[in-house]
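Data card: per-record layout.
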Amino acid sequence: MQETTKAAGALGRAAGLERAARRRSGWYARYLWVFAAGQLVLVPMAVLWHGPVSAVVFSVTNGLLVAGLSAYAARQRVMRRGAGKKHVLLVASWAALFALTVTLGTAVFGHGVPFAAVAAVACALPLGIGAWTEMRSTA
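The structure for this 139-residue chain is written out next.
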């Protein structure tokens, strides 16, 4: 009987920790929203601008975004179970879309503003969907 009580207590504590982790992991949705918003600037910059100056501006802007997001993520103490796999999937989806965008944008569409606008939204989409689902799962 005492083992059953101990086991029930341990399961209750584990469930409490899981609830606390879900409540405190809302930071990841904010992280993804900022990452998605960054695509609305970075993708048109990558597609429409050409030359060494644009490469430097793009690299510095992207570096600041990544450094800021990395510093923000490093300060967080809680990560929901399964968030690592979700992050890998989201970043891989974004990377594939971004690579396709830059390839098509430079080889086929050149300075096409409509293409850059659609491509920016397409690159932000997986991150936005990830942020939205993260908000739903932490509520």
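Known properties of this structure: The mean pLDDT is 86. The CA atoms of residues 21 and 80 lie 6 Å apart.

See the next section for split statistics.
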